[in-house]
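B., you asked whether I could sanity-check this one before it goes into the benchmark set. Here's the sequence:
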Amino acid sequence: MNRICLIAVSALCLILQSQFLYGQEYDAQQLREMIMQDRTRAAGLHHSYEIPAISDTKAPKGYKPFYISHYGRHGCRYQSASVYDQAIVPLSKIKELGGLTPEGERLLEDISLIKQENLGMDWMLTQKGAATHRGISSRMLARYPKVFSGKQRNSVLAVSSLAQRCIISMANFVTPINEKYPELEVTMDTGDKFMDYIAHDPDANEELDRLCERLKDSLFIANFDRSRAMLAFFSDTTLLAGQIDYDPDLFFYHMINGADLAQCMDSPLPDIFAYFTPDEALAFFYAYNSRTYGQMGTTPEFGDWRPVNVGGPLLRDFIEKADAAIAGNGVCANLRFGHDSIIAPFELLLNLNGRNGHNVLDASRYWLCFRDICMGSNVQFVFYENGRGGVLVKILVNEQEAAVPGLDAVNGVYYDWPSLRAYMEQLF
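And here's what the prediction gave me:
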């Protein structure tokens, strides 16, 4: 496998030109327009949650919602303050040498300001992230009141990863439930016993991650024309190479990758993407998105390690808890709170909306991490019953109805539970 993957990466890098390879669902221009509409989308999985336009396909006659099974990524978080030093340290040294332009000095000031906001809060949830989860929960309650007001089901079980950002996300999500339905028994929990499915972390596939990092670096170097940015920020463009211990061509990637979390903070902070053109922002996103898809999805180049080994245990838990709820355990909702590294393989294992199984270079035609696994991203299985033993399921991704390719729906986006269950069981 080592040799095959290395050959694949080498081949990909050889064919790269300074252009983007999209097409079909999104071509280069369409994606560029999305980035121009909101340049912070280029931050990929660091992008804050966009409240979607919600619409519901009418359920088949006689079917009413009775149970929801949910997994949500934590909301907006702080960055590790040390990440910003990858830009601040070299920029500060070059400033001392008189090598920054006025715009370069403003850039340094802005990144320093963003770092200051993060001090003492490494990886913790922001208040913006907390509000995101209260909003998702409130919309769920308004959309499916019958799930939470049924007489036979009076229990909500919420479980979180051990991380503070996930625990506080969980607490904010259940707050509207407690306020609107005080009669429900709502429990919150976290602990090592839950981590096998909430945040399953098998032995790391270091080879896969290393190959995807190499791919990301190659894509960024091929597509990010740094000549404009170098002249904009540096009055002496020869100084940068002497101040960093990695490829100077990757300096702007490292700088953006830290500072792009400014959008997640609670105080208004500078938008780092404002310093870059749409094409430069798009080059960053394409490299980031391709790397993440290679790590998290199923591809001809890198296989299906994470969908099966990370997404599989979570999918098994969805099945087991749904079976228990259908059997009559009194639970109206199972809520889970974790990370992008779990929800991405989970979504892709299910191949929701046909987004799994593509070539790495083509991934950005179909799968966009700023849309699919942004801060606060979520998957909800909404179960319906007809009182005669029939059970249907509708799947939502970020509150929007999703399709399961290859599986016939009973009506629109409503799937027969036994058929969906059988489909899911053969995935892991």
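One thing to flag: The beta strands are 64-73, 155-160, 185-190, 331-338, 378-385, 391-397, 400-402, 415-416. Otherwise nothing jumped out at me.
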